[in-house]
């Protein structure tokens, strides 16, 4: 383990070089950058209201125990001096796009995880550099120079360890886990620190006497499979510092959605139908910007006792308009009326995504119906030319 600049300069060519870049307190840092009066103060991005939730917290706020996804009322209780700032997602997306342009100077193999973090495979970088560590150091310096923001980076030979490494020296840190030290680094980590092991799985592991990477490594694959099913192979590998997952630069998006928490409990249909329709409009706008549609519509309802239900419908034909999406979502919502308790949150998601251009081609083919061989050839050629030109 090192933060030096030479760990892979002489490594075998088949050793992958992976960087995980994670922006430090991204949303809050953007707000502090753009408003000097917020610098050095505890800042929460989110709603300062009874039902508000913290979307992000500055490091000054984190010292008081304020965390993302925490109800605003609890955050305020932990830190009375907390400054709440409404989120500006358009700004965050613009900054994120600029950061990804910096990544693209070094490699085309970029896998975004969110607006503020990504994996980069720099095994064969676009710019000649002595090591992956040197590239990570240069990327961090460039981000700071061009955006005024700090990023932490982890460098390793696989994605699992690179992400662990980026967490190790936050904020504004750089850490490297070499192939020689990967298994050693993992051995003494609590399983809660393993990405891919959530609280419920960690509790199950604790019940089995598995508390650290070393404990996990002591279990056979067969034993883990009995308790954890298909994901056992992943646990078995990462406990030994092994992760063969590639950086997937063209991984397709699986869903688009949004949700809203209300300041007061909702009971009436008229109070829920309007925000659900508005959310459908926003989700469809996101689909149009990405030229996507989908066949599965899902709604989420969270009651005032925090119990949550999900209802979904997979359609024969993909959604074609915002009005159609609203009709399906409202139909699912209608099936949950009258509500068992007051509703504090609603959400809607479109999944089973596919390109809208593909749907148009399929619809045109259906509209044309059976054709003679000559006419099919002409229509097929025309459609093909239009699709290729999109």
Automatic annotation (TrEMBL):
Instruction: Alphabetically list the UniProt keywords.
Output: Cytoplasm, DNA damage, DNA repair, DNA replication, DNA-binding, DNA-directed DNA polymerase, Magnesium, Metal-binding, Mutator protein, Nucleotidyltransferase, Transferase
| Annotated ranges, domain UmuC | 18-198
Q: Gene3D superfamilies under this entry?
A: 3.30.70.270, 3.40.1170.60, 5' to 3' exonuclease, C-terminal subdomain (1.10.150.20), DNA polymerase, Y-family, little finger domain (3.30.1490.100)
Report the subcellular localization: Cytoplasm
Biased region (Low complexity) positions are 375-390
Q: Which PROSITE patterns match?
A: UMUC
Q: What does this protein do?
A: Poorly processive, error-prone DNA polymerase involved in untargeted mutagenesis. Copies undamaged DNA at stalled replication forks, which arise in vivo from mismatched or misaligned primer ends. These misaligned primers can be extended by PolIV. Exhibits no 3'-5' exonuclease (proofreading) activity. May be involved in translesional synthesis, in conjunction with the beta clamp from PolIII.
Name this polypeptide is given:
DNA polymerase IV
Query: What is the organism field in this record?
Result: Novacetimonas hansenii
Gene behind this protein: dinB
């Amino acid at each position: 383990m090192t933060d030096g600049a030479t760990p892979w300069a002489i490594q075998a060519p088949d050793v992958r070089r992976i960087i995980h870049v994670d922006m430090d307190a991204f949303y809050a840092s953007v707000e502090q950058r753009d408003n000097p009066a917020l610098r050095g103060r505890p800042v929460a991005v989110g709603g300062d209201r009874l039902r508000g939730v913290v979307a992000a917290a500055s490091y000054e706020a984190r010292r008081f125990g304020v965390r993302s996804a925490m109800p605003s009322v609890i955050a305020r209780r932990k830190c009375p001096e907390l400054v709440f700032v409404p989120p500006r997602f358009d700004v965050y997306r613009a900054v994120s796009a600029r950061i990804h342009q910096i990544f693209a100077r070094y490699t085309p193999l970029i896998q975004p995880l969110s607006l503020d973090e990504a994996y980069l495979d720099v095994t064969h970088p676009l710019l000649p550099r002595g090591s992956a560590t040197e590239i990570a150091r240069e990327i961090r310096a460039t981000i700071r120079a061009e955006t005024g923001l700090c990023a932490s980076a982890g460098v390793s030979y696989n994605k699992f360890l690179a992400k662990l490494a980026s967490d190790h020296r936050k904020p504004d840190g750089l850490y490297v886990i070499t192939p020689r030290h990967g298994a050693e680094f993992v051995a003494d980590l609590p399983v809660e620190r393993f990405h891919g092991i959530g609280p419920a799985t960690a509790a199950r592991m604790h019940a089995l006497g598995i508390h650290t990477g070393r404990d996990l490594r002591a279990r056979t694959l067969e034993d883990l499979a009995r308790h954890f099913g298909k994901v056992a192979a992943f646990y078995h590998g990462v406990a030994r510092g092994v992760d063969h997952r590639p950086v997937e630069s063209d991984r397709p998006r699986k869903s688009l959605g949004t949700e809203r928490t209300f300041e007061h409990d909702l009971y009436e249909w008229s109070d829920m139908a309007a925000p659900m329709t508005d959310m459908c409009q926003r989700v469809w706008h996101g689909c149009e910007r990405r030229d996507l549609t989908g066949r599965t519509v899902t709604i989420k309802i969270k009651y005032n006792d925090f119990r949550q239900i999900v209802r979904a419908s997979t359609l024969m034909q993909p959604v074609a308009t915002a009005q159609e999406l609203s009709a399906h979502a409202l139909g699912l919502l209608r099936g949950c009326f009258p509500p068992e308790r007051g509703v504090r949150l609603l959400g809607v998601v479109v999944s089973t995504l596919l390109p809208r251009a593909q749907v148009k081609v399929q619809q045109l083919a259906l509209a044309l119906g059976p054709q003679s061989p000559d006419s099919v050839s002409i229509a097929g050629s025309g459609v093909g030319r239009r699709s290729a030109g999109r």
